[in-house]
Every structure is written in C-alpha cells, then in structure tokens.
Amino acid sequence: MLAIRLVEHPDAVDTLVLPVRPTGAATEQTRVTGTAVQVAQEVTAEAEALLAATGHGGTAGLVHELPRPLRTPSRVLLVGTGAGGEADWRAFGAALARVRVPDGSLTVALPADAGPEAVRGLAEGLWLASYRFRMTDRDDDATVRDVVVAVPEPARYEAALAAARVTARATRFARDLTNMPSSVKCPEWFADQVRAAAREYDGLTVTVREPEQLAAEGFGGILAVGGGSARGPRLVELSWQPPDARRHVVLVGKGITFDTGGISIKPREAMKLMRKDMGGAAAVVSAVIGAAALRLPVRVTALAPLAENMVSGSAFRPGDVIRHYGGMTSESTNSDAEGRLVLADGLAYAAHRLAPDLLVSVATLTGANAVALGKRTAALYSDRDELAEAVAAAAAAAGERAWRMPLPADYVEYLNSDIADVFSAPERGAGSVTAALYLREFTGKLRDRWVHLDMSAPSWSDSDDAELVKGATGWGVRTLLRWLATL
Ligand code: BES
Ligand code: MN
Ligand code: ZN
Known about the structure:
The protein has 14 helices and 20 strands. With 487 residues, the protein is an alpha/beta fold. The relative contact order is 0.11. Zinc ion is lined by residues 256, 259, 277, 338-339.
C-alpha cells in the first residue's frame, strides 16, 4: 500500500494538491507553515487565475494541472472536493491515486475546516484506487507511492486514518482472493490464506474442516457441490471473540472457487469470470480480520463453505437429493444453483450450533441481481425492517450500494418439492428473490434476525471507477465493517 502521512509542516513540496470547492475558488490553506506556506500564497493567486480562466467547477475528483517549471512547487494539482462529504473525499483520493508524478510523491493541503471524515474518505480513495492485482515480474508504471497530508493538527485525524487503513487493507485482501485465478485458488489454498492472514492478529481463531470431517458431521451440500473436483471442499470458520462482546454475529459467505455450472454446464461467456464466485467468502473473512484489527467489541464469526463446482464422473447430478447439515433435504435439478446448497449448510450450522444474535449471508448468488439492479448494487433481503435499514445505511455510508428487495409470501410455494423438504432451483419467480427465499428455510430460529446480500453484480467492476479498479471490488467488506462498528 502506498504511504500516507499526516504532517503539520511538510518540507520539500514538489507536487502540491490544492482542493477546489464548487464555488470555483481554491481553498486557502493558512495553517501550513514553512516552505509550503510561503509558496502557497503566490500559488493560490496563480491557482485562482487558472480557475477563473478554465472554470474547474469543483466536481469531486476532477483534476486540473498547473505546471510551474523551475519553481517550487513545480506542479500544482487543483482537485475538486464536491460538496465535501466522505464520498466526495473518496473520489478525491481515487483521482490522486491515478495522477502521474515523476517522483511518486504528493503533498495535499487539506482545507482548514476539513473534518476527520475527509481524511477517512481521502485515504480510502487513495488506497482502494491504487490497488493492483498483477501476476507478472514486470513493474507497474510509476504512480503515486507517497502522500503527505498537510493538516493543522495531525492528532485530530489519526483515528480516521487508522480506520481507513484497516478498511482498505481488508478490502484489498478480499480483492486479492477474488482476483486470483482458480488454477491456484482451490478450497485448500483459500483456507491457507485465511490462516496466514489471521496469524497477524491476537484474538482470531481459525478452524478448517476437511472432507472427512464434513462427511462425519453431515455437511451434505458442501460435499455434493465439491464432489466433482479433484481438489476437495473445505469449511473455514474464522472467529473474532473479544472478551467484552455483548453480541455475536455470524457471517456466511459463498465460496465457490470456480463455478462451471457442473453437469448443468454454463455456456462459454457465462463461465469466463467464475473465479469470482467466492467473493462472498472473501468478504466475510476479510470483514472478520478487519473487526479484529479494529478490535471491535462484538463477537464475529465468518463461515466460508468452499467448493469447486466442476464437471466430472464424481460430480453431483440434476435430480439429486442432498441432505444438509441439520437434516433438511434439497432437491437439486440444476447443478448451477450450487451456491445456495453450500450456504444452506453454513446457515444451518450457524443456526443450530452457533446460535448467534444476528446472521448474515453474502454471496455471488444469481445473475438476476444484475438484471434487477444493474452492475453496482447488491440485493438486500431481510424480514426485519430495522436490520435491513441498518445494513443498507452502512452500505451507503461506506460507499457501497444495497437495495432492499421483497420476500413475497406467495412465492414460497415455488420451493415445494415432491421428494425433498425444499426445491433448490425454482424456474418461476425472480431468480435473486427465490434464492433468498430458499436460504431463509435454513435460518431456523434466526429467521427474522437474518440479512442476505446477493452481490453477484457489484463484486466485479469492468472498468476503473472512482475507488474501484477493474476486476474484483471486494464488495461487502466496507459495508460489513461499518455495520459491525455500529453494534
Ligand atoms: N455463480 C452464479 C451466479 C452469478 C452469475 C454470479 C453471474 C455472478 C455473475 C450462480 O451459481 C448461478 O449459476 N446461478 C444461477 C441460478 C439458477 C441456475 C437458478 C443463475 O443465476 O442463473
Ligand atoms: Mn452456479
Ligand atoms: Zn455460483
């Protein structure tokens, strides 16, 4: 991650960043002293002249460059702050991550009235937009490596910077897991990554169940879906248990390390990106690691049922009946509806064995998510209004989007099966909604303390866009961390 430092008196400023407000005037940074301030007065006048001539407008993240050859600073970047909310500062930070400076360093003169949320947004934008996933020894092009944020009282902003660092690190970890090609990323590899990451924090424990133990305890959904792969399934249980915890939250994330569709095989185009089908598992383990890093006073357990959905002689078949953890059975007529089968085991295990206060599922569950809501918005389901609203509010504050969808009572009959407790792949009704209704059947006593997030669409970005970069977005980590921090 690039370095971000809060400094009262920056020295040797080569590239200076001046925030521009929508009024069109560069904000004056009066508290920066030393070299920077003396230049700043003359620079402010030049900046104002440039702004008057070009009409920057102050749009969040818009960059105008003012070159000052042979002078100090030798370059001024006029960057819009928009209305100055945290999201605007994220866009501001993301824009800075994409500028090119010869020595890779920038000094940002924060407006004197900027609050801690400005630093939080700025830092998250910088760290998330500068993320790269590359499997090559070739160097990436010279981009920003070092950012100095000039503020009057650094101590006032340290906590915001620390929160941003944890959030960004956790999100970047989720992106790394999700971007990794499936030749490397098998269930065992994923479990090893979680073990290694968890070792860095006190108070985290990891349990990994291998196929023999999954069979002994009756995790039939995970075993069925993982049965077609030469690389066996796993169940990762990662928990953060602080001594002062009043509540326990269980997060269950879909961890299909590759989804071919199985015997109900996907067409070529639909299969291309299916290495991302463990984005839910990546989000929940990363959120727990983030909770430990922040030492949040809430007990949080991530369950990641991991399996590779392959086509082979040992793969499960359309029409098979699967017995889940806890004894419920599913008739599965479409092996491409595999995510819900592994989640059913995870939810049932959480409800029966862990009995938490709140239960959340996060999954790249259906193509229908994008049909209903487009590419940046997750579908959110819950029977409890306050819970749904709290999670949606956390998503909005964190810069992710989740839109509540209904759980209509009259669709429940689509889950009826002639031979099992539930039918897993209804062909009627809306795909994302019926998947949620199916999952709800496994929540037991936690039925109205459960939230489900179908994040198939926002788990991936087709282009660089503000703090997102092309590829895995790490969707859910920021939402979950914000929400957990409110409990
Ligand atoms: N992993 C897919 C869902 C998906 C699709 C995620 C596109 C991200 C992008 C899931 O396992 C799946 O195949 N769902 C089916 C369900 C159907 C068979 C009931 C779908 O959405 O078509
Ligand atoms: Mn599938
Ligand atoms: Zn899938």
